[in-house]
Amino acid sequence: MSTPKVLVASDLDRTLIYSSAALALTMPDARAPRLLCVEVHESKPLSYMTEAAAGLLTGLGDTAHFVPTTTRTRKQYQRINLPGPAPKYAICANGGHLLVDGASDPDWHAQVTARLASECAPLAEVREHLEATADPAWVRKHRVAEDLFVYLVVERELLPEEWVKDLAVWAESRGWTVSLQGRKIYAVPKPLTKSAAVREIARRTGAELTLAAGDSLLDADLLLAADRGWRPGHGELADADWTAAAITALPERGVLAGERILREFVRASDGGVRG
Description:
- The relative contact order is 0.18.
- This protein is of the alpha/beta class.
- The protein has 9 helices and 15 strands.
- The model has no long low-confidence stretch (mean pLDDT 95).
- The strands form 4 sheets. It has a 5-stranded parallel β-sheet with strand order 5-1-13-14-15, with helices on both faces.
């Protein structure tokens, strides 16, 4: 078989894989889909996809380069055990690390860190601001990810909406962006993007068609960089009713959205190969 000319770059959490809290199994129990656990953390099952989705992902490698594209750190990504052959390429830390056969490409990482140093406020300044302004009453954890960006784990029901809005304004003027995903608030440098890493992989693979999916604000640049993209009926982008040319807003929510996204990937990549 010839080398695939289609690249599929997909976000993972709440796009292809789902925690128990995010599954959205609203159907009668007897009609719920069979689930496959794809991540274990501290000896407990953590993330799932439907068995049908697992079959679709396994078959996708016949027609496309599948590239997991995540804001997770490398350590967090390595906990995931996706079905099918191990992807040659993966993107972690929102584009800060481009993995090739599981190892970070040092030249890519050096390019990214140099750009961050020249284009936006330093990580330490943002970290100090969060520590000074976030209320311990609703913050569970402060985290620095790969020395590239920061995030908070919060009690969502106690989190003041105005604080998030104020943080976004403060960050914007310093070249950073803010994203609220479930119980996590991310502050990420604007030049740290999934789309830049995906373009580099497309260059290396010679891909002629790029497909993408994602649910959060941090996925918007990825979707815009693709030839075709899909977003589920949940998440930051759905809440904002965000869309753009060549982006399909799907009605499905939860784990069934992940299955639908994979069906769209398979259909579009097969068409790309035949075309």
